[in-house]
Amino acid sequence: MEAAAGGLVVKAYDDGSKVVGFFKKKNDYVKDLEENYHKLKSELGKLQARRDDIEAEFNRDRRMQATRECQDWILRVKEMEKQVSKLEEMYNSKGKPSWKPTSWTSRSKLSERMAKKSEEVHSLWMDGIFERGVVVAKSVKPVEKIGAPNIEDKQSLQGAFRNTLNYLKRDKITRIGIWGALGIGKTAIMENLNDNEEMAKMFDKIIWVTVSKHPSIEKLQEAIIRRLELSVEGTSSTTEEKAQRISKELEGKKCLILLDEVCQKIDLHEVMGFRTLQKDSKVVLASRSRGICYDMDADELIKVENLSYDDAWNMFQEIVGDAMSSPSIKRIAELVVNECGGLPLLIDKVARTFKKNEKNDVLWDRGLRRLQRWDSIKVEGIEEVLEFLKLCYHDLDEIKKGCFLYSALYPEECEICVDYLLECWRAEGFMDYINEFKDARGEGHVILKELIDLSLLERTTGRKFVKMNKVLRKMALKMSSQRNDFKLLVKPREGLSDFPKREEWEHATRISLMDNQLQTLPDTLDCCNLLTLLLQRNMFLMTIPESFFASMQSLRVLDLHATAIEYLPSSLSNSIHLRGLYLNSCIHLREFQFNIKSLVNLEALDIRGTQIGLLQIGSLERVRCLQMSLSNLGKDNHIEWTISNFNSLEELSIEVCSSKLWWDKIIDTVKKEVAAWEKLTSLRFCFPEVDFLELFVSTSPVWKKNSCMTFQFANDHPDSTCPQILESFCYLSYYSLKLVDGNGVNPRMLKQLMVTYAFGLINHRGVSRLSDFGVENMNRMLVCLIEGCNEMETIINGEGITQEVLKCLEHLCINNILNLKSIWQGPVYAGSLAQLKNLTLSRCPELKKIFSNGMIQQLPQLQHLRVEECGQIEEIIMESENNGLEANALPSLKTLVLLNLPELTSIWIDDSLEWPSLQRIKVSTCDKLKRLPFNNANATKLRFIEGQESWWGKLIWKDDAVKRLQSLCIFN
Questions:
Q1: CB 168 within 8 A of CB 284
Q2: What DSSP line would sit under 771-821, residue for residue?
Q3: Do residues 839 and 864 lie in contact, with contact meaning Cβ atoms separated by under 8 Å?
Q4: Of 70, 271, 435, 536, which one is least surrounded by beta carbons within 10 A?
């Protein structure tokens, strides 16, 4: 019993000791609560300090990043902060002294948890000592994708995109300029370049920079530094140091630099620290100005054209969606798309606006009518586009703004003769700061080029005309309406039979009513501020009221050409500031009912095709530019003309529109009069024989002393049946020489040939080749037309030639030469034909050889080849003449036209050529042509194959290229 009792006592003692120990421990935790709390805070502070030091280390250099181990540790620290924060909240709510049992117990537990958490925090702090370091080099993404829009269904954009890709693959091309009008789609092309997988594989890094309108080196550097994730704090604060930092980062790397919205020249050396691009690196820049691309030393320029109607329609239809299923809506939509002028930005805004109209015909019709008038009213969606387009306009100086707005007087998409437009600009006073007429014309060309380079005007085919896009024209009309000094009344081609109402014209400074059906004019036009009045081609306008011009003292330009007027009223004498008067093709005009001497400021006068005789005009002291017909000189063999009548004349054009007999009788008198002119700078004239031309050149004082005199000379009576190739190129035709029905080589003409840019040789006898005229005399020649010279067997004989031949020639047209067998015979001297872009061969029945041995290698610039009605041609590129031809032959060829070639069997023997630039091929009546030299890998830019469906069906294919090419076919 005692033993048992003793055991119970011992057990009770032990249990009591445990209980006492338990409560003592818990009580100690309660006593140490505040201490444990502060210890935990201290350990957490040490942990956070360690974390901050580590983060500061890899944040100092943007190229560096935390190791994976370090990143995991930082995440654990973040989680630990959350746990400690919860304990801190519990402490703040439960840590206050209290004798309540529940409070005592919870405080004990809280203190215990804090003690253990302190140990965990300390352990985590110890884990933050990384023996292998905390940072590693960061891997910058080669490309930062932008999310480029789809342009595959927009031919003009896709074409420019593909052209750029092809240029980027060429080693010698390092800078490419993409240019075009605002809103045309340049940024979309650049975004597609940025996101393109092929580009990502080709370059180590692709750097995209959007350049602001007023860029600074600092802003450009900051954008590049952000893209490369560089750290430049502290050590690289100047632009020079930042440039060197960027250069060092890109050293040895193959980079593609994309510069979007470039508005002025950027010095890449200042921005990126290198004068020349790193090895294999490239730059593509997008600008609305072609001039900026040149300033940036672009090797190749790519113009982004407006969308075709089909592409514009597809884009519009895709945005509008379901409403297009309605036939009535579709008809209106076609007109809506036409108003957008192929401008993607405008198409997008207009389509989104019209989408809100759903299938409501009334709203669609109203929207169309408002869109057609957006130059005079506000239209939803248009104002934003207008503000965007205004950027180009506001960058112009006041003179160029005036020239741009003036061009809106002509109908939309109308071809405007360049010479005529420049004369009007001069007459309006836009170039009054230049005295000489020739210098003013030159300055006009400079202004015109800038407007073209900004895509505000467009060159048409042949360069002699320009036109204005309909959207830009409406913008110009909108801008003019906001200026008090440029109020326009513009209603050309509107079918008007009645003159507009007074409220429309009384405040106008310029009026354009050309190409209407006006039959009468107001008795008087009380418009004292009117500067330009354009009434040309109102064919039913027979009379002008006597007092019509009474209030037009300020009038400077008056165009009445191709009207049916018979006389000019006396009130025109009030227009003493008139400087340009155009009466050409007024076939009934026979008199002035006033003394034309009253027009004391008249500088440009055109009376071609009228019945006005020079005797009626008398003396005009200030006329600088006179265009006339031979018939204006007088009648019945009596010439009504003396040199004193036009002693300020600088430019003279005489059209031969009378019989050759009459011309022969007066040529000697005319020749002597013209030769005596000392101020003449430009002459367009036809001489009946070469001897007369030679005599004029030898006796004319102005010709002897003025080597810069521009000329268009022809011999014999021009019968107007010859191709007008010499008239097609505005900047070339100023130095034009055309010889018709001549014989042999006249040594006296060779001097003129040396300064000739455009040369025509028509129906010439006594020469067997063009080189008979001496290849040394053709170094300036840019355009050459040879027609009907049936004794010619070749164009150039290269035997014995030791210099480049026709090294500047760009356009060669050979037509109707019955005995021509080849273009080139013998060796081809390096550099010959190096600039040839267009080659046309037509109706040469004996021609068999186009590209003789060695010739094709000299044609890197050839873009357009046309061969027509040459019955003996069997091969375009003859295998026997071109053994070992390299795959990149004819690298620039864009179009190939083959018409009526009955013996043609081959373009090239196989598909080994690359055809890198070929876009269009047209084939008609070439029944023996059974193969095309294309496969799935070459001719990647080919977009159109035009031909007969029966011919296409008989073609033989080496592989499945037909699947790719079938979609390009246009059958006729």
A1: yes
A2: GGG-GGG-TT--EEEEES-TT-S-SEE-TT--S-SSTT--EEEEE--TT--
A3: yes
A4: 435
List the end-to-end C-alpha distance of the chain, in Å, as a whole number.
Answer: 129
The length of the chain is 972
CB contact at 8 A, 428 and 405:
no
Closest CA to 710 of 625, 631, 787: 625
Tens of pLDDT, residue by residue over 893-902, are: 999 999 999 9
Beta strands 557-559 and 532-534: pairing type?
Answer: parallel
Amino acid at 29: Y
What token pair was written down for 227? 């893209």
Burial of 616 (0-12, 13-18, 19+ CB in 10 A): middle
Amino acid at 284: V
Q: How many other β-carbons are positioned within 10 Å of the β-carbon of residue 776?
A: 12
Q: Tokens for 942, please give them.
A: 């080919």
Instruction: Return the higher-pLDDT residue of 477 and 666.
Output: 477
Q: Are residues 230 and 245 in contact, defined by beta-carbon separation less than 8 angstroms?
A: yes
Backbone phi and psi for residue 295, each to the nearest 5 degrees, phi listed first = -60, -30
Q: What are phi and psi of 478, to 5 degrees?
A: -65, -45
524-531 mean pLDDT: 93
Average pLDDT over residues 581-610: 92
Give the CA dihedral 497, 502, 504, 505, nearest 10 degrees.
90
Closest CA to 469 of 486, 452, 482: 452
Among the residue ranges 55-69, 484-498, 710-724, 850-864, the one predicted with the least confidence is 710-724
Residue partners of 247: CB distance under 8 A and separation at least 6: 272, 273, 274
Structure tokens at 751: 């001097």
> Would strands 864-868 and 920-924 be described as parallel, antiparallel, or unpaired?
unpaired
Q: Residue 16: which residues within 8 A CB-CB, separation 6 or more?
A: none
pLDDT-derived band at 872 (thresholds 50, 70, 90) equals very high
Single-letter residue type at 392 = C
The 8 Å CB, 24+ separation contacts for 318-327 are: 319/347, 319/348, 319/351, 319/352, 319/355, 320/351, 320/354, 320/355, 321/355, 322/359, 323/354, 323/355, 323/357, 323/358, 323/359, 323/364, 326/359, 326/361
**How far is residue 571's CA from residue 78's CA, in Å, rounded to a whole number?**
94
Q: If DSSP codes are grouped into helix, strand and coil, which group holds residue 563?
A: coil
How would residue 640 be classed by pLDDT, with cut points 50, 70 and 90?
low
> Which residues on neighbouring strands pair with residue 825, listed in sequence order?
797
**Residue where the block lists tokens 């940024």:** 187
Q: How far is the C-alpha of 395 from the C-alpha of 388, rounded, in Å? A: 12
Residue 433, CA distances (Å) to 28, 399, 424, 554, 650 in order:
102, 11, 15, 19, 18
Task: Please check whether residue 396 is in contact with residue 448, taking contact to mean a CB–CB distance below 8 angstroms.
Answer: no
Spatial neighbors of 284 by CB under 8 A, at least 6 apart, are: 164, 168, 175, 176, 177, 178, 190, 193, 256, 257, 258, 259
Which tokens sit at 819?
Answer: 């005995």
Kindly state the tokens that stand for 891.
């690298």
CA dist 591 and 605 (Å) reads: 15
Alpha-helix residue ranges (DSSP H) falling in 95-212:
101-127, 155-168, 186-195, 197-202
**Which strands, in side-by-side order, build the sheet including 458-459?**
416-417, 465-467, 458-459
Q: Closest Cα to residue 340, out of 315, 357, 366?
A: 315
Q: How far apart, in whole angstroms, are the C-alpha atoms of residue 536 and residue 558?
A: 9
C-alpha dist (Å) from residue 601 to 62, 406, 428, 444: 71, 21, 12, 20
Cβ neighbors of 528 (< 8 A, separation 6 or more) are 551, 552, 553, 554
| C-alpha distances out from residue 597 to 544, 602, 620, Å | 20, 9, 6
Residues 6 or more apart whose Cβ sits within 8 Å of residue 675: 696, 699, 700, 701, 703
Taken in order 333, 335, 339, 342, the sign of the CA dihedral is positive
Q: Are 865 and 896 in contact (CB under 8 A)?
A: yes
> 448, exposed or middle or buried, with CB in 10 Å at 0-12, 13-18, 19+?
buried
Percent of the chain whose pLDDT exceeds 90 = 30
Residue matched to tokens 């958490």: 117
